[in-house]
């Protein structure tokens, strides 16, 4: 229900749901008999989910064409996920097309995503500062993995701002331990949970970088992620860009291999990660200002807003930059406000999407700024998405990014050329 709107209880008839189920089964049968190159990997994925990946790989090999044959490596990785050596070999065979440094598995305890490593081809110590924002809630099992993947970036001029959003586990302790080890890490603790986008806005107010991006506390970043995105942004003279990800379950199985309806789908495997959005800070401040202060969906809203506000929109860089963990406790998989692999957007997300798109449609490209704190909404939002303004105001009044000893984390103010990393760059046109 939208805040301020009347409830509408219109359950879909049972016969309509039954027809849709039958339609999906017929469509799946047709795809198996006469697969198009565009649908080959998604159809093989469905076969794998239903009948096992041994059958999925055999079917894909029988029907594959040259333009999608590389995707079968991911199906093989799913088939061989219990064999770590075979799994990483298949994964690297797929990723070779993107030119990133190959992955290896560390001889360590933990799931496959915790063991991922890669050695970058070069190290960049001289360049503009990048602010990386990481919001975390009860992420003690993954935050160290996620943060260390950022701390291992080949692009060294960055700061990592971690927002613990009212966690009740050991997340905060791990974040402060990381800050003790590395001066580029600064930490803020929210007394109450206000959601990831309020957390990002809080961090943004303290960010020092010439560029800003995010990284989720349960994802693994390739060490060349920032390097490749910054170079792409400069080469294309852009204000914002997105890069690619793979979705993976905790057991190492790659998930959500589907073309879907989204324009950014590439081969059914590589998808463009909303959290990878990297912005030139000056353009962000002039045209966008902040994320919408809601509990879900604000990534998509911001990207769509940037598409309208920036002269060149948000260009997609078709390269691999991260692995996003697909697990039952993630925001994406929330049963009431998430994005179901089979059924698509939840009702609440559909409502939110419709409302923000209506606002975008009636706004000029110069009037798409979002305030923070947000005392008056620019468009209606479902009740499930709304964060109480009292909680936001309290978080704002108590926000500071500290080291464990209570002082602001030291950060080298000059780079190898003796310049401030936050200013030694050529401004880009938005």
Tell me the layout of helices and strands.
Blueprint: H1 14-33, H2 40-51, H3 53-63, H4 72-79, H5 84-95, E1 104-105, H6 112-115, E2 116-117, E3 130-136, H7 143-151, E4 158-165, H8 171-181, E5 185-190, H9 196-206, E6 211-214, E7 219-221, H10 225-236, E8 240-248, E9 271-272, E10 278-280, H11 281-287, H12 298-309, E11 315-325, E12 339-340, E13 344-345, H13 347-361, H14 389-397
Parallel strand pairs: 3-4, 3-6, 4-5, 8-11
Antiparallel strand pairs: 1-2, 6-10, 7-11, 8-9, 8-10, 12-13
Helix pairs in contact: 2-3, 3-4, 4-5, 7-8, 12-13
Domain Glycosyltransferase 2-like: 131-255
Keywords: Transferase
Region (Disordered): 399-430
Describe the structure.
The structure is a single chain. With 430 residues, the chain is an alpha/beta fold. It has two domains: 39-99; 117-398, Spore Coat Polysaccharide Biosynthesis Protein SpsA, Chain A. The protein has helices at 14-33, 40-51, 53-63, 72-79, 84-95, 112-115, 143-151, 171-181, 196-206, 225-236, 281-287, 298-309, 347-361, 389-397, and strands at 104-105, 116-117, 130-136, 158-165, 185-190, 211-214, 219-221, 240-248, 271-272, 278-280, 315-325, 339-340, 344-345. The strands form three sheets. Strands 3, 4, 5, 6, 7, 8, 9, 10 and 11 form a nine-stranded mixed beta sheet that branches. Helix 4 runs antiparallel to helix 5 (84-95). The longest helix has 20 residues, at 14-33. It starts with 13 loop residues before the first helix and ends in a 33-residue tail after the last helix. 44% of the residues are buried. Mean pLDDT is 86; it is low at 4-8 and 405-430. It comes from Mycoplana dimorpha. Residues 131-255 form the Glycosyltransferase 2-like domain. GO terms for molecular function: transferase activity. Residues 416-430 have a biased composition (Polar residues).
């Amino acid at each position: 229900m939208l805040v301020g709107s009347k409830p509408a209880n219109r359950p879909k008839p049972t016969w309509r749901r039954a027809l849709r189920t039958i339609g999906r089964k017929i469509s799946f049968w047709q795809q198996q008999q006469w697969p198009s190159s565009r649908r080959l990997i998604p159809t093989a994925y469905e076969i794998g989910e239903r009948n096992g990946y041994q059958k999925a790989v055999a079917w894909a090999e029988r029907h594959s064409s040259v333009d999608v044959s590389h995707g079968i490596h991911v199906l093989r990785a799913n088939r061989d996920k219990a064999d770590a050596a075979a799994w990483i070999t298949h994964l690297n065979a797929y990723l070779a097309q993107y030119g990133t440094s190959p992955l290896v598995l560390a001889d360590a305890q933990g799931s496959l995503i915790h063991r991922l490593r890669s050695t970058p081809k070069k190290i960049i110590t001289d360049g503009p500062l990048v602010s990386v924002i990481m919001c975390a809630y009860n992420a003690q099992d993954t935050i160290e993995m996620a943060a260390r993947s950022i701390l291992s970036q080949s692009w060294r001029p960055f700061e990592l701002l971690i927002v613990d959003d009212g966690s009740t586990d050991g997340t905060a302790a791990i974040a402060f331990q990381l800050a003790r080890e590395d001066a580029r890490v600064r930490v803020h603790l929210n007394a109450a949970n206000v959601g990831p986008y309020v957390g990002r806005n809080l961090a943004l107010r303290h960010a020092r970088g010439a560029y800003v991006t995010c990284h989720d506390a349960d994802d693994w970043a390739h060490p060349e992620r920032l390097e490749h995105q910054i170079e792409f942004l400069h080469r294309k003279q852009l204000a914002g860009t997105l890069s690619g990800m793979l979705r993976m379950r905790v057991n190492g199985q790659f998930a959500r291999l589907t073309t879907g309806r989204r324009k950014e789908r590439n081969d059914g495997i590589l998808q463009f990660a909303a959290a990878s959005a990297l912005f030139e800070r000056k353009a962000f401040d002039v045209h966008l200002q902040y994320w919408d202060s809601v509990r879900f969906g604000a990534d998509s809203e911001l990207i769509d807003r940037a598409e309208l506000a920036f002269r060149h929109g948000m260009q997609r860089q078709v390269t691999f930059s991260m692995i996003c963990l697909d697990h039952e406790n993630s925001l994406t998989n929330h049963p009431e406000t998430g994005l179901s692999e089979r059924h698509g957007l939840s009702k609440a997300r559909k409502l939110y999407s419709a409302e923000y798109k209506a606002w975008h449609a009636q706004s000029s490209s110069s009037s798409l700024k979002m305030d923070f704190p947000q005392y008056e909404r620019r468009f209606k939002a479902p009740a499930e998405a709304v964060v109480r303004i009292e909680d936001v105001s309290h978080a704002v009044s108590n926000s500071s990014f500290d080291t464990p000893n209570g002082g602001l984390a030291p950060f080298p103010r000059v780079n190898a050329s003796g310049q401030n990393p936050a200013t030694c760059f050529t401004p880009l046109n938005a």
